[in-house]
């Protein structure tokens, strides 16, 4: 059975304007699917629709199944339970996802208590262990810090720890490295791929950056103007892209020497 099956996903504004048009996606457990496209292509909106986090005033139709369970139309109380052990999300800017007034250890412990039913002390100990897993320096001290006391890369590690706390079946990472410098980007990408591999989870990775997608994904879906214009395994798509937009993305990346295997390639 597929872990994630998306069929005919369509998102509209309240006035009927179509923003996402009939998107179909499949993702198996342990597989990594990268969605690439320019700003406004609909890739992040697709991720939000899968997670049931669309902004107010938007409607969604089609089908989103996780482990065979239809998510579209689920009451919010049930969808809240799905978020955590079912689906977790890492966003581009962790400061928007983290509470600035709460120590990061408590933020990691929150889902451990709410979704996994751990007691306070057990959750706190597990939060420190998660800090260690995401390679925060001095995990116990990092757990006592507030978000503003950490660097951008460290905050993103905390956001990943929060997402991983409930061992989700599907991790959605929406431009998680865009705001980071190149060295930190590479570390976060490695951490994300290692984390989903160790849990056997599926990864839906969103980026405007084709070289990043090429380094992370097993398969790729190319989006433009709210539609998937091409998808398939990464190597065949990059070796022989069929759609003009995919060829345009590839040409730009090759010209910059920014694809795996190119001299001087960097994922960022």
UniProtKB/TrEMBL annotation:
Keyword Cell membrane annotated: yes
Cross-referenced Gene3D superfamilies: P-loop containing nucleotide triphosphate hydrolases (3.40.50.300)
Topology term for the membrane: Peripheral membrane protein
Entry superkingdom: Bacteria
Primary localization class, coarse: membrane
GO cellular component: plasma membrane
Alphabetized UniProt keyword annotations: ATP-binding, Cell membrane, Membrane, Nucleotide-binding, Transport
Matching SMART domains: AAA
Record has Electron transport as a keyword: no
Molecular-function annotations in GO: ATP binding; ATP hydrolysis activity
Entry's localization field: Cell membrane
UniProt record similarity statement: Belongs to the ABC transporter superfamily.
Protein's recorded name: Oligopeptide transport ATP-binding protein OppD
Protein encoded by which gene: oppD5
């Amino acid at each position: 059975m597929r872990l994630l099956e998306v069929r005919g996903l369509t998102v509209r504004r309240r006035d009927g304007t179509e923003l996402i048009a009939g998107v179909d996606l499949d993702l198996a457990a342990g597989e990594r699917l990268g969605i690439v496209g320019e700003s406004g292509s609909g890739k992040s909106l697709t991720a939000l629709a899968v997670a049931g986090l669309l902004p107010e005033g938007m409607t969604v139709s089609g089908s989103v199944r996780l482990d065979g369970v239809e998510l579209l139309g689920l009451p919010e109380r049930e969808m809240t339970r799905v978020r955590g052990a079912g689906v977790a999300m890492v966003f581009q800017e962790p400061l928007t996802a983290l509470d600035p007034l709460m120590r990061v250890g408590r933020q990691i412990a929150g889902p451990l208590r709410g979704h996994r039913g751990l007691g306070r002390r057990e959750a706190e100990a597990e939060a420190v262990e998660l800090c260690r897993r995401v390679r925060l320096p001095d995990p116990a001290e990092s757990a006592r810090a507030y978000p503003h006391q950490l660097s951008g890369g460290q905050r993103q590690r905390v956001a990943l720890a929060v997402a991983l706390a409930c061992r989700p079946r599907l991790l959605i990472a929406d431009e998680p490295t865009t705001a980071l410098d190149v060295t930190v980007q590479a570390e976060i990408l490695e951490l994300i791929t290692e984390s989903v591999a160790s849990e056997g989870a599926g990864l839906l990775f969103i980026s405007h950056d084709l070289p990043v997608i090429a380094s992370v994904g097993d398969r790729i879906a190319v989006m433009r103007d709210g539609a998937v214009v091409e998808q398939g395994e990464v190597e065949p798509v990059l070796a022989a892209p069929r759609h003009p937009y995919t060829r345009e993305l590839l040409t730009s990346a090759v010209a910059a020497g920014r694809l795996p295997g190119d001299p001087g390639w960097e994922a960022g």
